[in-house]
Fold this protein.
Amino acid sequence: MNRTVRAVMGSGLGIGIALVATTGCSGGGAAAQQVVSGGTLTMAVQFDPGDLDPQGSGSAENVAVSRLAYDTPVTVDGAGKLLPGIVSSWKELGSTSRWSLTVRGGVTCADGSAMDAATVAANINYVADPKSASPFTGVAVPTGAKATADAATHTLTVDSPSPAPFFVENLQLLSLVCHKGLADRKSLAAASDGTGPYVISQAVPGDHVTYTLRKGYTWGPAGDTSTGVPGIPAKVTVQTVASSTTTANLLLSGRLNAAQVPGTDQNRLKAARLYSSGGSEMNDSLLFNQADGNPTADVAVRRALMTALDLNQLAAVDGGGVGGKATGLLAPPKICPGDTLAGNLPSYDLDQAKSLLDQAGWTAGSGGTRAKDGKKLSLILLYGSNLPPTKATAEFISVQWRKLGVDVSLVQKPSDQLVSGLFGGTAEFGAVLQPIQVSTPAQFVPLMSGPAAPKGGNAADIKNARYAELVAKASKNPATASGCSDWNAAEAALFKDADIAPLATVSNAWWGKNARFSVDQGGVITPTSMRLLR
């Protein structure tokens, strides 16, 4: 998800002070706190966000920083409640393929221009178009959807070529770009053009991005609507800090105000009673490349590779000792409850795994490496984080697969490069470890089916007919018990064919020092909730 670090402004000149009551998720509960106005909040992310176009990258870092400068049509709070955003109301028009959205009045871009129905429609049409090559195509909005605006009524009608039962919920992922940015996408690489409470004032690749507060912002989510309140930071500096241990040290020393800290370094923050806010999210999932020519295009090979892995041990390793075992593609609270993993992925049995490869024609040679028709069983295991949990997970998997006679090469890529490679169709891999963090089962569909990258979002070129059949059935129903039953069965179909294996859930909490904030369901800080404390 996620650096030289600048010290935060403390009790310096020109900083106002007020008393407010704040309630923390840890660190002592409710208490009177001094808030500091006019200061800078320093936040850390693990990887450089890269290109800052909010619709151009799906990395956790890009999503986290995008919320500072860009609003979304709707939001979902930490309790899973759907709330209006730039869209004030919505309704289904006869079926889940057609929706009406009403855009709230008075919302302006940083340059003073209006975020109106036509601009919201233009955002939907851009992301819905596969030619945009946005990772949010089919995830935030249905692929091929068409939006038409009515200026007189401040509404837009969205027509989807296929049923979209989670259409409104998925809009929480759509950062809305203003008209200048829509007309010049390159301008968004190191600047912002949104309606959010902050604007980018400086961007230094590989080091930091600085955001400056907007005056007159009044349309934030319920409870945190305005920037005109005591304690809201005048600036936010987002630093790149690669090491989780360094991040924890900087938090404890007060040189950072907010950061996510994976793994056992969390224990030090808990012991120091630092503030935290957030829930849980999926950590790594293991996907297999099914493009023609890859050994993992064969379901028998995939099942063998999964049978060689103890999922209980993997959950402990991938969770960094502080996570939990996954129960499906989504982290709790799930919109469709249930354990879709149990009984659908093979149980650990190394001898059985070897037998499956024997039956598939992959026989061990004199050196122990398996081969078939003169071709070695070789694969690249790609992973996108150098944090201890993910690196340890990759090493654990490689050890198990080498016991099978697989020639495994470990390749680590920075998060932004890995994501762009996967969705650009240029990544070389046999298997990949990558967090996939979405909030509805429908958001997985373009990632698990349809055209392969770069023409679509199906980076692993998964071809699961049963999944596609069940998705088509589930898409005709909203998230009722009946619809959820079909969505859960679709997930199970992916696991039965060993297309993907979610490994662990982890805390998505943001930790705070001399700061308070709230975190939404997606694990992103709500910018207008941020308060600096003395």
